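FORM 7B: Structural annotation worksheet

SECTION A. Query
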Amino acid sequence: MRKFKSIIAGALALSVTGCADTMDRFGNVSMVELAATLGGAAAGGYVGAQFGGGFAKTAFIATGVMVGGSAGYAASRFLIPSDQAQHDSSARLALNTKSDGDVVRWQNPETGNSGIFRSVASFKSGNGQLCRQYRSSVVLKDGVFSGSGTACQQADGNWLKLHEEFS
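SECTION B. Predicted structure
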């Protein structure tokens, strides 16, 4: 038993030292990154709250907060606000008016960044909402990032991203 406690203590010590770099980076977080992280976490928590009940609902909310916060932070790391506005505008156009497979292109003359957005499949959710799976690619100076996700149209006509993954 003593050996087991020593192993646990060692593992905890190593995991805490791994946080040093993370804490150093925390001081360098911009307001845009912070806002994107909090916004993503809030949206993810809201989406998670729509599923399950009891403990499952709590798990969905926690997962939504973590995934949403991570996605918001990642998006803010490579798109400045004017790029994000161009991307969001193309996303709204594609989701609202284009057929599955139609490509909407955007380019930001301010930064030279560009991208494409297209819906790939449309379906109705269990509660009757129109949902669309999509693909998006963003071309930056240091590479191309592609991602996919799912968004559902809300009662007010706006689209809520249920999940999004970029790599």
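SECTION C. Observations
Residues 30-166 form one domain. The chain has a mean pLDDT of 76.

SECTION D. Sign-off
Analyst initials: ____
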